[in-house]
């Protein structure tokens, strides 16, 4: 390390820092950011719109990491019990409606497309595109939830909801408890996923209002970008849930 | 930094005054004060529960409380101290206040989320208190199944929801810190110029965002299991109770590092400041924080050596646990080496530093006893474990928190506190702590199990327990004393200068207390951290 | 270490080694605590600040020192790991010649059954000089069977059978604790182990009232629960023959292979559909809730005595 020398600190004044033994960490105000961006969407504690966008996007990524861990705990429970009870897992999977699940998968994939289009429209400042694609995303998300509602309702009718009214399908009584664990995980995983969908649709509604007011353009599209990340993540969770829960039965049987 | 004019009139403590201005603030410094007040309340509550435990154990018969009451006392002591005091303590108070200033930012990246996380903390606290008043909680803070899911008759569901909610406060704090460190550093504040406190907070935040969601989903499963008897953790319905332990410790072991890593960060700041010297081996200290955070996720199975876990899994967990000792030792020796040829002050922060060094070293080394699989058979679930984790969490984390609170108090409040009082408090805590917890190592080797309301009436057992309870009363005095001199300082304390300790860092170059937006002009950094230079012409008061 | 009051009585074959390991780590720890305390105190005094604007020397670190205090703790911790793992490994694997005891925990008592059939509650008489293996079960929540004088401890996990073993070396009466929190009277779930000379143990057994040995009881249960109607000694039954099943490798219907240990037998009784043997229909009822943990252990003890009837049968069921 260099010998202590004040010469190393050009421009250091003693103003106001009466007690600075402390090294001078700072030099006089730098000018790079002295004139803040004039964009009204810039929050006071950021230097520039770029910094604000980067922070928001990174924040959403970090949040999605926590979401991965959140679902990860459930996937871990799923893996443990699937290993313990392979037969019950296959039998339970047969009870799920793979057609409705498949339609829902398609619905979500299309909604990811409209979401991506909404982000693109925001970046280019095409207001009509933003509005149409956001509404499209919300409609597809709602369609998913409606289909999910019918699936859940069928499970109630067939007494496949875990809890005091759970009844194993005929012939499966002996593995009823194990199937109940499958359905417990099914309802918790898809239920939490559906809750994320509801939050996503509310987010889209808020973003839609902002889009309606013409807030988004090449200089400011952070909410659409960040909301889009969230939406894609929720879709991807479903892309994992669908094969693990619905398609599992297809490769079942002895030797699987 | 040369460009911050002293303008007393726009300190963050100034206008706007009033409750609403504080409760709706987005200023990280005010939010830190909100946290300081709330966690202090919970520290007192948790301390009262501890007093109940220690009073009961002065006699072997279990004659003060009913067994149920005693079980609730130790459970609530654990829940309150861990989730509502220790986990938020250093990050949410000292980290919230200092981290943005240390890196030259005007605030955290997401001020509104910061405020939200305090409200989530309060909401979780209220739900948990509701559980306390609607039947209490007697599962132990570990919520082990199937006791928690089928056997306990207390308000487990409510408490589980309280813990679930509080977890999000911790997640959001971690998220905010990570983004802030990545995106909000002042020009010139490169990663290797960051104060080590920031490194430690960064490592802690990683643990918070990766671990906390898992405990959230786990306690949620317990609540669902309790309500609907799903069978996920109930062996009678085909579930596996040990799966709960895996999921629980996957978070709760790293949670220990959420508590101690920030303490290590504070220690790095304090050791450098009281010695006025560059931290010895900066890079090693910084990376040892990351090493501890990463290794911390791979050791959870050492809580399960006698839980019917496979021997081979146990071997892996044991050896990785041993590896955690290495970065911990690296830090300790680097702190000691920092004082070599330093200019060591004997002002009050030094007392907390020395106390931390002694207690943390004992706490860390006794972890080796428990990581040693064969010996753990005898020691697990005994008072040895209790003593070990108190040495880490109280002797380490709280000692560091208290040291940091003293060190930063002048910055946070603009007032100097009583030096004599602070030294007396540090000595009382150190002495009281050792009297309280050292006998528990001995009790543990004798075989006294944890969570026992009554114990065999053998003379040596009672002698050690009485010693422990007597020590606890000294410890309590040590913790009460700061309440007086800190409060006194707010009203009658001498005004604090910007840099009362003569330390380096941006935080000591802004006025005490700092202005609302921290810096009147944007700082630029052109030196490494802890760059002390002889400056004979400058007078330092302190 | 018999007379030091800071150690529990040393009454089993591993107690001395456990204490030595403890003392070894204590010595290492004491060395480092003293070293760190001495260094910090000496530095704090020797390099105390002599005038208010003094600063420390401009020292940044030393790679040699860093490597030293990385390497030495690493080596020491590996020594502890190897010693501890070796001790654990031995304690986790009961010797083949051990006598089997059955212990079941329930809120809040320990139920003990001897191989000769004598039962006790919250007491356990054992002969010294003999390896004793304990099969541990729980009827409700987690418990932990802890005997500090023997330096052994094991969780009783509901839904599983766990094992532990010891060899008592000193006659005497020692504590049994429940070491895993189990509810209201957790601290009342205690008892005593009475280690006796072998001849005293035999005399004690003779004075006790036996309700049949575990194997005898298991045999009776095997017929009262009608296990024998399907599980016949030869391969003519609707269920697989259980003769020689213990310790064998079983081919399951879903393609997996498992070794038939105590926990496999337990699961196959309580939760019979979990693992179905290849070539058989999943028709066996689950006995969960119908068989107590003690009866279960007796059934298993009986099944373990069933020797292969004919060589042809034992190969595959």
Description:
- The complex is a heterotrimer of chains A (256), B (542) and C (317).
- With 256 residues, chain A is mostly helical.
- Helices cover 65% and strands 0% of the residues of chain A.
- Chain A has helices at residues 49-84, 86-95, 98-124, 127-157, 176-212, 222-246.
- In chain A, helix 3 (98-124) runs antiparallel to helix 6 (222-246).
- The longest helix of chain A has 37 residues, at 176-212.
- Chain B is built from 15 helices and no strands.
- Helices cover 67% and strands 0% of the residues of chain B.
- Chain C is built from eight helices and twelve strands.
- Chain C has a five-stranded mixed beta sheet with strand order 3-2-1-5-8. A five-stranded mixed beta sheet of chain C has the order 4-10-9-6-7.
- Chains B and C meet through helix 3, helix 5, helix 8, helix 9 and helix 10 of B and helix 1, helix 2, strand 7 and strand 9 of C.
Concise account of the structure shown:
By secondary structure, chain A is an all-alpha fold. Helix content of chain A is 65%, strand content 0%.
Task: Give the number of helices of chain B.
Answer: 15
Tally the beta strands of chain C. Answer: 12
- pLDDT < 50 runs, ≥5 residues of chain C: 312-317
**What level of helicity do the residues of chain C show?**
25-40%
The mean pLDDT of chain B is 93
Give the chain pair forming the largest contact, with residue counts. Answer: B-C, 105 and 90 residues
Largest sheet: number of strands, sense, barrel closure of chain B: none
Instruction: Please work out how many helical segments of chain C DSSP would assign.
Output: 8
Task: Give the overall shape of chain B.
Answer: globular
Strand content of chain B: under 5%
Q: What kind of sheet is the major sheet of chain C? A: 5 strands, mixed
Oligomer, anyone?
heterotrimer
Compute the number of strand runs of chain B: 0
Rounded to the nearest angstrom, the distance between the terminal CA atoms of chain C is 54 Å
Category by helix and strand content of chain B: mainly alpha
Alpha-carbon distance between the two ends of chain B = 20 Å
**Helical percent range of chain B?**
55-70%
Measured on Cα atoms, how large is the radius of gyration of chain B?
Answer: 23 Å
Query: Which descriptor suits the 3D outline of chain C?
Result: elongated
Give me the strand/helix succession of chain C.
Answer: HHEEEEEEEEEEHHHEEHHH
């Amino acid at each position: 390390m260099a010998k202590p020398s004040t010469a190393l600190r050009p421009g250091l004044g003693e103003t106001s820092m009466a007690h600075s033994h402390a090294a001078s960490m700072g030099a006089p105000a730098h000018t790079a950011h002295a004139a803040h961006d004039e964009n009204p969407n810039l929050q006071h504690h950021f230097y520039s719109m770029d910094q604000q966008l980067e922070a928001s996007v990174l924040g959403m990524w970090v949040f999605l990491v926590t979401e991965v861990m959140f679902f990860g705990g459930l996937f871990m429970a799923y893996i443990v019990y699937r290993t313990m009870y392979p037969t019950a897992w296959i039998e339970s999977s047969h009870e799920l409606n793979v057609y409705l699940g498949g339609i829902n998968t398609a619905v979500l994939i299309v909604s990811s497309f409209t979401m991506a289009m909404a982000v693109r429209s925001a970046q280019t400042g095409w207001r009509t595109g933003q509005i149409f694609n956001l509404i499209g995303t919300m409609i597809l998300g709602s369609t998913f939830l409606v289909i999910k509602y019918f699936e859940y309702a069928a499970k109630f009718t067939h007494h496949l909801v875990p809890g005091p009214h759970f009844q194993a399908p005929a012939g499966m009584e002996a593995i009823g408890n194990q199937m109940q664990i499958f359905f417990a995980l099914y309802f918790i995983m898809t239920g939490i996923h559906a809750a994320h969908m509801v939050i996503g649709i509310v987010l889209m509604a808020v973003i839609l209002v902002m889009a309606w007011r013409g807030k988004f353009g090449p200089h400011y599209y952070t909410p659409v970008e960040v909301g889009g990340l969230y939406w894609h993540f929720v879709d991807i969770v479903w892309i994992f849930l669908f094969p693990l829960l619905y398609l599992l039965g297809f490769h079942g049987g002895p030797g699987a | 930094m040369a460009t911050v004019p002293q303008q007393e009139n726009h300190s963050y403590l100034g206008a706007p005054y009033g409750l609403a201005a504080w409760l709706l603030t987005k200023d990280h410094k005010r939010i830190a004060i909100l946290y300081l007040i709330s966690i202090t309340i919970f520290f007192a509550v948790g301390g009262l529960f501890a007093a109940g435990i220690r009073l009961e154990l002065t006699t072997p018969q279990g004659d003060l409380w009913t067994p149920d009451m005693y079980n609730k006392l130790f459970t609530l002591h654990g829940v309150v101290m861990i989730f509502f005091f220790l986990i938020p303590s250093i990050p949410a108070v000292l980290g919230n206040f200092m981290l943005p200033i240390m890196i030259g930012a005007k605030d955290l990246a997401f001020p509104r989320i910061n405020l939200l996380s305090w409200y989530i903390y309060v909401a979780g606290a209220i739900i948990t208190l509701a559980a306390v008043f609607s039947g209490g909680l007697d599962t132990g803070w570990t919520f082990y199944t199937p006791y928690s899911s089928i056997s306990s008759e207390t308000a487990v569901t409510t408490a589980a929801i309280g813990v679930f909610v509080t977890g999000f406060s911790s997640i959001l704090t971690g998220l905010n810190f990570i983004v802030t460190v990545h995106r909000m550093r002042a020009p010139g504040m490169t990663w290797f110029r960051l104060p080590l406190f920031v490194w430690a907070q960064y490592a802690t935040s990683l643990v918070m965002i990766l671990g906390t969601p898992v405990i959230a989903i786990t306690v949620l499963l317990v609540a669902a299991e309790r309500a609907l008897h799903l069978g996920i953790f109930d062996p009678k319905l085909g579930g596996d109770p040990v799966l709960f332990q895996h999921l629980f410790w996957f978070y709760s072991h790293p949670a220990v590092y959420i508590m101690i890593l920030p303490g290590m960060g504070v220690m790095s700041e304090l050791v450098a400041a009281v010695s006025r010297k560059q931290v010895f081996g900066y890079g090693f200290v910084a990376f040892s924080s990351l090493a501890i955070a990463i290794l911390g996720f791979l050791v959870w199975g050492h809580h399960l050596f006698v839980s019917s876990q496979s021997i081979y899994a146990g071997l892996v967990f044991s050896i990785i646990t041993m590896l955690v000792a290495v970065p911990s030792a690296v830090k300790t020796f680097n702190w000691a080496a920092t004082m070599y040829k330093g200019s060591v002050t004997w002002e009050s922060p030094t007392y907390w530093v020395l106390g931390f060094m002694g207690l943390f070293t004992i706490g860390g080394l006794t972890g080796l006893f428990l990581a040693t699989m064969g010996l753990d058979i005898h020691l697990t679930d005994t008072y040895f474990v209790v003593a070990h984790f108190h040495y880490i969490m109280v002797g380490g984390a709280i000692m560091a928190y208290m040291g940091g609170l003293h060190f930063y108090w002048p910055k946070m409040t603009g007032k100097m506190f009583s030096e004599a009082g602070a030294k007396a408090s540090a000595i009382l805590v150190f002495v009281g702590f050792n009297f309280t917890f050292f006998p528990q190592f001995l009790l543990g080797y004798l075989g006294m199990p944890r969570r026992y309301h009554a114990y065999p009436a053998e003379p040596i057992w009672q002698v050690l327990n009485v010693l422990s309870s007597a020590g606890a009363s000294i410890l309590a005095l040590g913790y009460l004393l700061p309440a007086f001199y800190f409060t006194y300082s707010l009203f009658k304390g001498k005004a604090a200068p910007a840099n009362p300790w003569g330390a380096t860092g941006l935080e000591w170059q802004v006025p005490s207390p700092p202005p609302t937006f921290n810096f009147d002009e944007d700082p630029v950094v052109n030196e490494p951290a802890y760059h002390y230079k002889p400056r004979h012409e400058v007078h330092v008061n302190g | 270490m018999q007379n030091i009051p800071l150690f529990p009585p040393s009454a089993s074959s591993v107690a001395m080694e456990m204490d030595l390991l403890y003392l070894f780590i204590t010595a290492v720890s004491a060395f480092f605590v003293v070293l760190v305390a001495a260094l910090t105190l000496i530095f704090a005094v020797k390099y105390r600040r002599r005038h208010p604007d003094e600063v420390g020397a401009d020292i940044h670190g030393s790679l040699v020192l860093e490597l030293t205090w990385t390497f030495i703790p690493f080596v020491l911790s590996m020594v502890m790991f190897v010693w501890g793992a070796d001790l654990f490994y031995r304690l986790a694997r009961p010797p083949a010649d051990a006598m089997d005891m059955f212990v079941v925990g329930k809120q809040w008592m320990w139920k003990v059954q001897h191989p000769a059939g004598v039962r006790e509650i919250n007491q356990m008489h054992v002969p010294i000089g003999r390896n004793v293996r304990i099969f541990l079960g729980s009827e409700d929540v987690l418990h932990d069977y802890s005997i500090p004088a023997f330096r052994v401890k094991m969780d009783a996990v509901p839904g599983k059978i766990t094992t532990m073993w010891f060899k008592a070396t000193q006659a005497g009466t020692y504590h049994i604790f429940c070491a895993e929190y189990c509810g209201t009277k957790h601290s009342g779930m205690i008892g005593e182990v009475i280690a006796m000379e072998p001849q005293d143990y035999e005399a004690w057994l003779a004075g006790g009232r036996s309700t049949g040995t575990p194997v005898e009881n298991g045999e009776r249960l095997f017929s009262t629960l009608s296990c024998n109607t399907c599980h016949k000694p030869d391969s003519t039954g609707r269920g697989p023959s259980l003769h020689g099943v213990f310790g064998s490798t079983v081919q399951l219907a879903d393609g997996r292979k498992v070794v038939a240990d105590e926990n496999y037998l337990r699961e196959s009784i309580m939760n019979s559909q979990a693992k179905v043997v290849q070539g058989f229909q999943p028709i066996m009822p689950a006995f969960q809730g119908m068989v107590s943990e003690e009866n279960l252990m007796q059934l298993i003890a009986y099944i373990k005595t069933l020797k292969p009837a004919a060589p042809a049968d034992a190969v595959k069921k």
